[in-house]
Write a structure and sequence with these properties.
The chain is α/β, with parallel strands linked by helices. The protein has ten helices and 20 strands. α5 links the parallel β7 (127-129) and β8 (157-158).
Length: 356
């Protein structure tokens, strides 16, 4: 959790790029949907007792983004200010962090040195999910290296482990007097039979073990005040959630998830409310190796909590640089375009504008 002086210094320059999806007035704990705030600076400000969570999409260091690790402290560029401004920030680290292992039988493979964790930490990220379809690109040996490097770097990771118990275990931390649990899970079917963690086999926390996944959420809810499930799911190239995603979201919400979000489709997907659970179906690419991989439009989802409830969500529109692969905050007409695009995606989600 960041200190107050750091937060104040960072939030004010970023106010112009924050676009509010929902706002909670003092004394009113029900989010109120607005199209655009009249005063962006007020939308970014936090009342006493509030904390902010920031979520962003897929990150890896390959081809054009590999050279960013020459200076891990600056690898993410200016978007690091947005991530660092939050009390807790989360991304999907979509790579094996290892120089060992044997390539798995699949088309795309991503591998990065341990300095990847230095870059993620320097950007203000507090936790990374590795429940994705690239964590085992170079097999169990490389996954073991990834987990060991994360531990050495002091970077909490969820969604992968030496066995199912470890893979489905939450990271629980405290911020603003609230205990918050984060879980990482995958619904991607590529190599799922051999990549899913079991009692005796390393791998990712895959929801093919549905009851185990739901039990992990229920257990986290008993241990924490607020539960986040970060998923790798969806159909690549589709900006609407599949029936499979909708079913899983409903089951996770019923099990006790307060917030569900994720990545994998390479596109932004819509957000909204499933009862009392906030769902952001997809955050797209973020720090990305391949130019125009479906879309360079992306963003950071900011969620503000007070008294164990969501009181405000904000979307920071961002565009992936064609030169460096870094996600760059945008303003003006470009910010309006991406923000309007994100808002329109709610139509095909079946999600509500308000909690119920």
């Amino acid at each position: 959790m960041r200190g107050p002086f750091r937060r104040c210094a960072v939030l004010l320059p970023l106010a112009a790029v924050l676009v509010s999806c929902a706002s909670g007035a003092a004394g009113n704990y029900e989010p109120v949907t607005v199209s655009r705030p009249e005063a962006p600076a007020e939308a970014a400000a936090k009342a006493p007792g509030e904390i902010t969570l920031a979520f962003a999409g897929d990150v890896h260091f390959a081809e054009r983004t590999t050279k960013l690790l020459d200076d891990p402290k600056s690898a993410f560029g200016p978007i690091a200010e947005v991530l660092s401004a939050a009390d807790l920030a989360v991304v999907n680290l979509e790579t094996a962090v290892s120089t060992r292992g044997t390539a798995e039988p699949k088309k795309y493979h991503f591998q990065a040195p341990s300095s990847a964790y230095d870059a993620v930490k320097a950007a203000g990220v507090d936790m990374a999910s590795q429940a994705n379809n690239h964590a085992l690109d170079y097999g169990p040996v490389a996954l073991a290296d990834s987990l060991a490097s994360a531990k050495k770097a002091g970077m909490p990771v969820v969604g992968a482990g030496p066995n199912a118990a470890a893979a489905f275990a939450p990271w629980i931390t405290e911020a603003g007097g609230m205990k918050i649990a984060f879980l990482g899970m995958s619904q991607v079917h590529e190599l799922e039979a051999s990549w899913a963690a079991t009692d005796t086999h390393p791998g990712v926390a895959h929801v093919r073990a549905r009851e185990r996944a739901l039990a992990a959420v229920r257990d986290a809810k008993r241990a924490a005040d607020f539960v986040v499930v970060f998923l790798h799911w969806g159909k690549e190239g589709s900006d609407c959630p599949t029936d499979e995603m909708r079913t899983l979201a409903t089951q996770l919400a019923e099990a006790g998830a307060d917030l569900i979000t994720g990545t994998h489709a390479h596109l932004l997907l819509g957000d909204g409310w499933l009862g009392r659970t906030y769902v952001g179906y997809g955050l797209g690419n973020f720090l990305w190796w391949w130019n125009d991989a479906y879309s360079n439009d992306t963003g950071v989802l900011r969620v503000t909590l007070r008294d164990k409830k969501i009181v405000r969500t904000e979307f920071v529109p961002t565009y992936i640089s064609r030169d460096t692969g870094q996600p760059l905050p945008v303003t003006g007409a470009e910010a309006d375009r991406i923000t309007a695009k994100f808002a329109a995606l709610r139509k095909c989600t079946g999600l509500a504008d308000q909690p119920s």
